[in-house]
Amino acid sequence: MKNHLSDRINSMSTSAxxxxxxxxxxxxxxxxxxxxxxxxxxxxxxPDFIKEAAKQAIDQNYSSYSPVDGYADLKQAIANKFKRDxxxxxxxxxxxxSTGAKQSLANIxxxxxxxxxxxxxxxxxxxxxxDIVKLAEGVPVEVPTSIDTDFKMTPEQLxxxxxxxTKMIWFSSPCNPSGSVYNxxxxxxxxxxxxxxxxxxxxxxxxxxxxxFIGGHVSIANIDGMYDRTITVNGVSKxxxxxxxxxxxxxGPEWVAKACNxxxxxxTSGANSIAQRATIAALDAPISSIKFMIDEFHKRRDIVLExxxxxxxxxxxxxxxxxxxxxxxxxxxxxxxxxxxxNNASDFALYLLEKANVATVTGEAFGNDNCIRISYAxxxxxxxxxxxxxxxxx
Length: 394
Ligand code: PMP
Ligand code: GLU
What we know:
This protein is α/β, with parallel strands linked by helices.
């Protein structure tokens, strides 16, 4: 049958993280003993006090449409959180609550980009950035980084990537997929370049800010001269294990927030009302209430680094945040493992799935085809077993 779909959807890639998770689920349902390390999703239960707030919201009949940009008292809790954790002052008219940080990002792209506007993406970048940018008719400009610079973009690289068409730069810190964390000095270096180009805006995706093993998360909006040109993106999926509840938010210039509100008003309306109420409880709680998760991720990171480090051919950086490792496995390219020729990272990820029954994600999806991403948001037992299996097949 003729393809009647739009060029827009035909040219879009399927989210590689979600696709791999679906494939792993399918194989599991067929009875295969798959260990899924493909999806970036905390494996903890939502803390009880957040569940209680959701139950109360149901009983208090929070069942109508909320304001498009979120309940005012949730926006106040977000403003308080920005002040407390990031030293950032955002008024309520600068904040928009959305259905996950993913929607926040899509809103930004749709309201900021015109046909042909370039968006600099330090690679590796989170899988959905490039397709969201393309959906809004922007042009992703990848700036490749490597393990040698801990997968961070240098000011020189940024400078070189800027053209008269550059509209924005999008990045995450802590980074999905590399786990790299930009420190104050590194962000200042990037800001020095951006100061020479006043028309470039920044999307700072800080959804992993609390999952940081070195302490001292820095928001680029806090660097001198950057506040008015930064849109800070965050959400509760990672820090509070609330992935399915779908709440993300932005803080940024009022004109951006107003446009996101207008756009969202025509596409989805306000985010889920019960989840919004629960988010107030999450954000009002002291960070100490989620420390147990961060400590656990830290412990697992060390175990994973140690065990993967014993496998010849895995070249690793030390991720300072998030819950991923991003080993460079390019030393396997051109080699035949148990009869399977490995030409690239996708071949390698597929090989691990088929021969070790371990689901990972190819680095290609993140703009780096020398690496694979392994999520360690899984139990220690599963991680040990998965890595033992990987070791056995490579
Ligand atoms: N940004 C990054 C870097 C992510 O890893 C994710 C993971 N889902 C998101 C944004 C989107 O988060 P959510 O839509 O669940 O809030
Ligand atoms: N952010 C997670 C990941 O990178 C969740 C999946 C997704 O939203 O794509 O695996």
